[in-house]
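Running this now, will post back.
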Amino acid sequence: METRQSTGPRTARTPRTPLTTSGHPPAPERGGPPPAVPGCDVVTVPARQGLEAVDILRRGACDAVGPVLHDDGGDTLGFVVPPGTAAAWDVPGSTCTKTGARGLSQDPEPPVEGADWLLPPGEADPATDPAVLRRALGEAARMIEAADNCH
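Update: finished.
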């Protein structure tokens, strides 16, 4: 697994466990296995910023958010993004991990022990657009900074 970590004022966190799985349950509407996100990448951010970003994405003009995982400690969120995102990811305070050819199945069960879906596959787009996620994370960081400076 290849990881690109941004540098910046925040401490980046990497997932504790790999964010992939290989099971394919039947899709209820078609009866066959749902498609996997082939070779998806995962952007991991601190939970506070990630939750703000999810709210921003869901309030947007289009429902542009893909599956989102949260870890067992509630410290981080992982956004499923298209393959190739890790090669150019440069958002401070976040990490983008390339999952390789394994991809992420559209299994309703979380792909790793100790994690759970915030937005499960099937209830979201196949992956979050990296440019849209980048803007949402920037807006979330500005909102958090403004809120923290009000005290």
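The first strand starts at residue 2 and ends at 5. More later if anyone needs it.
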